[in-house]
């Protein structure tokens, strides 16, 4: 019995829905992970502090978060078992001059972040969330309720709206937020108790305020619908698995690493992205605090390490069967996906596949394979980046999803829970 066995698919999905509501941006997600782990006894550290050597620790760096559990004894055979995910999702980011006035309306100036399914953002109730830094260097996380919406032209005014929708990222995606002349930044600052005169910098994003819903099928729990499931499905599953692992008596010989990077949706090449130094510097500091300090000990440790890169995957859309490979039809409810790609857009190889299948077997849940239709380009994720950087066996996996990158994505509650169970099995030694 583990902590995860206390969940039904529905109760797990409800807990996940709450986590999503509290995590409208990468910054909020990272802070929520740290709060949940410190509540469970993990010690929070800062990158700038001397390495604390805590057995159970967590560190937030902007929109990224990394946590670790040390084994009872660190030996020459110790490696790391890493599960990596990402905290960010496609969205719209506010520009420095946040408000423009057009024919009496005040509009919010935004640029596109990542690759959203753009038209899904039209006619929605949008809030604004993110970080504001003052001239004093104080950092505030802010989150408003619904404040703006992107109005779409009615079909009467453009007959092409239903047959040939072509929208400009610059022209057509400006939310309106007021019927009068009013500064949206003044509003955000007032609601967060910040003096607007003191604002020096902002990283603010649009998000959908609509709460999650669970419905579908005779039992009413076939679909879990909410925003940001790419990739909070993996952040939350690895977080719950990490908590379950910390609570078991099962001895592990390896260092267990939870890491959720920022900026995957824009290519990961940032200080807090998967191509940045967070994972490497943490692994290095962990080894250097042991008797195996130094390059030789570090590289030996790395050679005995492995990584699961967890990110959302595509379930087959029954309206577009031909976009999938005819022999590989991952469906909602069929279990988490093992993702394979010959061009190495996913890092999975046969050795990684075996690790994954062993963990799924231990967890007693089924999994499915995802491989692209050869005529459809394949996405990528953090797996190939960490695999290339460290040279360790890496396996790309994820929860099957419909409507990926839409403002509201669709998964299956049993798949969500199964993902957490497999990740837990990997961490306890499968
Ligand atoms: Zn994505």
From TrEMBL:
For the protein in the UniProt heading, the enzyme class is: hydrolase
Q: What is its EC number?
A: 3.4.11.-
Q: Which InterPro entries match?
A: Peptidase_M18, Peptidase_M18_dom2
Required co-factor(s) are:
Zn(2+)
- Gene Ontology molecular-function annotations: aminopeptidase activity
Superkingdom classification of source: Bacteria
- SUPFAM superfamilies, A to Z: Aminopeptidase/glucanase lid domain, Zn-dependent exopeptidases
Listed Pfam families = Peptidase_M18 (PF02127)
NCBIfam families (UniProt xref): PRK02813.1
The identity of this protein, by name, is M18 family aminopeptidase
């Amino acid at each position: 019995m583990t902590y995860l066995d206390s969940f039904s698919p529905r109760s797990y999905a409800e807990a996940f829905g709450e986590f999503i509501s509290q995590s409208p941006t990468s910054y909020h997600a990272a802070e929520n992970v740290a709060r949940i782990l410190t509540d469970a006894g993990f010690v929070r550290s800062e990158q700038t502090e001397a390495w604390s050597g805590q057995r159970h620790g967590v560190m937030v760096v902007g929109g990224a978060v990394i946590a670790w559990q040390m084994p009872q004894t660190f030996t020459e055979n110790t490696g790391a078992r890493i599960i990596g995910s990402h905290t960010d999702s496609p969205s719209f980011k506010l520009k420095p001059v946040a408000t423009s006035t057009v024919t009496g309306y005040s509009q919010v100036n935004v640029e596109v972040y990542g690759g959203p399914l753009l038209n899904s953002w039209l006619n929605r109730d949008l809030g604004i969330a993110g970080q504001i830094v003052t001239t004093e260097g104080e950092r505030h996380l802010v989150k408003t309720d619904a404040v703006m919406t992107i109005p779409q032209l009615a079909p009467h005014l453009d007959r092409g709206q239903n047959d040939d929708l072509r929208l400009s990222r610059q022209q057509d995606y400006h939310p309106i937020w007021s019927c009068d002349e009013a500064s949206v930044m003044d509003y955000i600052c007032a609601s967060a108790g910040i003096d607007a005169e003191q604002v020096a910098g902002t990283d603010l994003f649009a998000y959908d305020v609509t709460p999650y819903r669970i419905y579908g099928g005779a039992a009413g729990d076939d679909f879990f619908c909410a925003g940001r499931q790419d990739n909070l499905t993996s952040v939350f599953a690895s977080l719950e698995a990490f908590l379950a692992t910390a609570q078991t008596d099962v001895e592990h010989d390896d260092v267990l690493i939870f890491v959720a990077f920022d900026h995957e949706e824009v290519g990961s090449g940032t200080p807090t992205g998967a191509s940045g130094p967070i994972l490497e510097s943490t692994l290095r500091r962990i080894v250097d605090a042991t008797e195996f300090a130094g390059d030789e000990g570090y590289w030996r440790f790395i050679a005995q390490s492995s990584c699961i890169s967890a990110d959302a995957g595509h379930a087959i859309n029954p309206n577009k069967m031909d976009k999938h490979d005819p022999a590989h039809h991952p469906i909602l409810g069929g279990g988490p996906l093992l993702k394979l790609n010959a061009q190495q857009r996913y890092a999975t190889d046969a050795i990684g596949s075996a690790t994954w299948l062993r963990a799924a077997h231990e967890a007693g849940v089924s999994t499915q394979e995802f491989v692209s239709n050869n005529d459809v380009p394949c996405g990528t994720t953090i797996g190939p980046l960490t695999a290339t950087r460290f040279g360790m066996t890496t396996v790309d996996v994820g929860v099957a999803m419909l409507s990926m990158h839409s403002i509201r994505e669709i998964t299956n509650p049993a798949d969500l829970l199964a993902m957490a169970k497999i990740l837990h099995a990997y961490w306890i030694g499968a």
